[in-house]
């Protein structure tokens, strides 16, 4: 098929990957269990599972007060912008998948857009090579934030109507103004990410101490300027961020740091409601995010490939082998075909069809790994992890929300726009700065995902709702950059094929392959016999951390069972 012969221009040395593989080879057989075990939490009426506990409780309170899942998601989303600043945000963007009690499904794309002055050469150096410094560390990397428009759109269209936006934002405003005690994953991450934040006095003033060191576990984080910004949005709606003094301060802050965003870029920003990607898997319906996320297409493509095998009868090792073969093929398609759907034509029906999956399946040998070069070519994988955040919500009425949003890197580019309290993203690294150059997650892309004015960079975020007989069955998603899609895949197959309870499905160590580099990454804790089987099939296997956080909810005969991913310190499943 055409996929086998394409993109020779992508070919680049994979010496780096091989070096990494060699240095990890000595531990490839080791079996450590770093993941831990999720606690299953049951709830009769409604539930929120999020990476940060204060914000999860904010959402549950909304549910208890008669709100629906969309109300609770909006309240949680704004609260996490305060309590989980490494990824919760109003300075970034994301995606929300909604199942409504009336049976309808929809999605809201609030991905950041490139400022009007960004073009295909914006992230290249003088020699025409991709310049990671520009796309990851500089203010040029900042996309126009979409979160406020997205959450406001969700509430206006699908909220219960029992609450005003201001009421849903009130807990976030209070948490920003009064402060809260820094703890768990937020506190763990801040010292690691401090080098990026400490470049900007406006960020140090909020996240640092008087001696210039970062706040630590147990310190109070107070964000009065963020409180003022949130209060202005609560009072005047999303236009308070996109037009007027706050927009002007954001543009001024970005430009003072060397970026190109203007007040007009903010004024022109729009969240977009899009039809979901739909698929089926062994009688269940998959509802997931369409482009500019690659997640829904890749997830459905992989599930379609795997549906042709009786995975429940395979050994766990063979199941994971077949899964990694499906991963290679879907990620190769991701690199070539996917980008901003408003700019490039994407063959969605074909990529998500059972027939296309059958063609791919015919290329899989059950006992021999397919070299990535026989599919297409590639890059490296960095251990970027929980830089994005996912939460799942269900209510007593039959609504469900799966929401993933991000600043890209942990604490984004590290810049707070002075006078706004808003921490800004570095999302534009998710473009393919150049066709043969990997982004921070080692992902390759082609012209379909080239930078351009107003474009949305391709994402891996995969907020997903699985329906059974038209009702929410599994709500899942994860942070983790390129790891996200495969984490979601494994939660889905663990539940459907292996009949795991949700705590086990979330906790079970995962595998990852993204086509290039030609390596299967096995999470610490993957059993030795699985690693050995993958190696015997010809795969290079590297055992390491795979920092994802699949905070998920499964329907139960009476109510719901939730599992906060044990990979995140402080994640919480809470319900009533
Ligand atoms: N910034 C990571 C993603 O959107 O996939």
Query: CA-to-CA gap between the ends?
Result: 52 Å
Secondary-structure content class:
alpha+beta
Oligomer: single chain
Low-confidence stretches: 1-32, 377-382
Q: Count all strands and give the number.
A: 21
Largest sheet: 7 strands, antiparallel
The share of residues in extended strands comes to: 15-25%
Strand order of the largest sheet: 1-20-19-15-14-9-8
Instruction: Give the number of helices.
Output: 19
Dominant shape: globular
* Overall radius of gyration: 22 Å
Could you estimate the helical fraction of the residues in percent? 25-40%
Q: Which compounds are bound in this model?
A: glycine
Task: Average the pLDDT over all residues and give the rounded result.
Answer: 92
Summary tags:
576 residues; alpha+beta; 7-stranded antiparallel β-sheet; 19 helices; 35% helix; disordered N terminus; binds glycine
What does this molecule look like?
- With 576 residues, this protein is an alpha+beta fold.
- The chain has a domain at 66-271 and 411-449.
- 35% of the residues lie in helices and 16% in strands.
- The protein is built from 19 helices and 21 strands.
- The protein has helices at 15-25, 53-64, 69-83, 132-137, 147-158, 165-178, 184-197, 201-207, 224-236, 239-242, 245-256, 263-267, 295-307, 316-337, 348-351, 354-361, 484-496, 502-507, 528-536, and strands at 40-43, 47-50, 93-99, 105-110, 180-181, 220-221, 272-274, 277-281, 284-288, 388-394, 400-406, 416-417, 422-423, 464-468, 471-476, 511-512, 520-523, 541-544, 552-556, 559-563, 572-575.
- The strands form 5 sheets. Strands 1-20-19-15-14-9-8 form a 7-stranded antiparallel β-sheet. A 7-stranded antiparallel β-sheet has the order 7-4-3-11-10-2-21, covered by helices on one side.
- Strand 10 (388-394) and strand 11 form a beta hairpin.
- It is globular.
- The chain starts with 14 loop residues before the first helix and ends with a strand.
- The relative contact order is 0.21.
- Residues 1-32 and 377-382 have low confidence and may be disordered.
- Bound molecules: glycine.
- Glycine is lined by residues 388, 406, 408, 427, 430, 459-461, 481.
């Amino acid at each position: 098929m055409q996929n086998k012969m394409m993109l020779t221009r992508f070919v680049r040395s994979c010496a780096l990957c091989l070096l990494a593989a060699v240095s990890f080879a000595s531990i490839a057989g080791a079996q450590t269990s770093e993941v831990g075990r999720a606690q299953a939490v049951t709830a009769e009426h409604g539930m929120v599972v999020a990476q940060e506990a204060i914000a999860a409780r904010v959402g549950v309170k909304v549910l208890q007060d008669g709100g629906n899942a969309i109300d609770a998601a909006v309240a949680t989303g704004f609260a996490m912008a305060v309590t989980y600043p490494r990824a919760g945000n109003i300075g970034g963007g994301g995606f929300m998948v909604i199942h409504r009690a009336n049976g309808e499904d929809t999605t809201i794309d609030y991905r950041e857009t490139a400022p009007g002055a960004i073009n295909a050469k914006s992230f290249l150096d003088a020699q025409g090579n991709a310049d990671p410094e520009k796309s990851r560390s500089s203010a040029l990397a900042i996309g126009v934030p979409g979160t406020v428009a997205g959450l406001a759109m969700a509430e206006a269209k699908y909220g219960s109507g029992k609450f005003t936006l201001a009421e849903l934002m009130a807990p976030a405003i209070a948490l920003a103004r009064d402060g809260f005690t820094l703890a768990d994953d937020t506190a763990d991450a801040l010292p690691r990410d401090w080098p990026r934040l400490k470049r900007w006095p406006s960020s140090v003033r909020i996240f640092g101490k008087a001696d210039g060191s970062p706040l630590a576990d147990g310190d109070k984080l107070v964000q009065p300027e963020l409180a003022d910004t949130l209060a202005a949005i609560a009072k005047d709606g999303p236009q308070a961020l996109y037009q007027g003094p706050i927009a002007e301060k954001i543009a001024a802050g970005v430009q003072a740091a060397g970026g190109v965003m203007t007040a007009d870029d903010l004024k022109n920003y729009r969240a977009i409601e899009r039809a979901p990607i739909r698929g089926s898997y062994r009688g269940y319906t998959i509802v997931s995010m369409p482009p500019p996320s690659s997640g829904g297409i890749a997830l459905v493509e992989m599930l379609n490939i795997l549906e042709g095998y009786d995975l429940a009868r395979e050994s766990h090792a063979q199941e994971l082998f077949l899964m990694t073969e499906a991963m290679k093929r879907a990620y190769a398609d991701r690199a070539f075909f996917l980008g901003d759907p408003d700019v490039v034509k994407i063959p969605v029906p074909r990529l998500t069809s059972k027939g296309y999956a059958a063609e791919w399946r015919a290329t899989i040998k059950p006992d021999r790994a397919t070299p990535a070069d026989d599919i297409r070519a590639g890059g490296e994988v960095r251990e970027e992890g929980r830089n994005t955040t996912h939460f799942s919500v269900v209510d007593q009425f039959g609504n469900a929300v799966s929401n993933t949003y991000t600043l890209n890197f942990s604490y984004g580019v590290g810049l707070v726009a002075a006078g706004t309290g808003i921490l800004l993203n570095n999302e534009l690294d998710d473009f393919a700065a150049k066709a043969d150059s990997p982004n921070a997650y080692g992902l390759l892309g082609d012209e379909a995902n080239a930078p351009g004015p107003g474009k949305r960079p391709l994402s891996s975020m995969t907020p997903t709702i699985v329906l059974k007989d038209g009702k929410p069955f599994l709500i899942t998603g994860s942070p983790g950059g390129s790891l996200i899609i495969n984490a979601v895949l494994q939660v889905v197959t663990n539940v459907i094929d292996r009949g795991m309870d949700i705590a086990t499905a979330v906790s079970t160590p995962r595998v990852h392959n993204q086509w290039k580099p030609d390596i299967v990454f096995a999470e610490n804790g993957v059993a030795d016999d699985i690693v050995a089987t993958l190696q015997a099939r010809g795969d290079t296997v590297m055992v390491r951390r795979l920092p994802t956080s699949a905070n998920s909810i499964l329907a139960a005969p009476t109510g719901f069972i939730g599992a906060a991913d044990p990979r995140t310190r402080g994640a919480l499943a809470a319900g009533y």
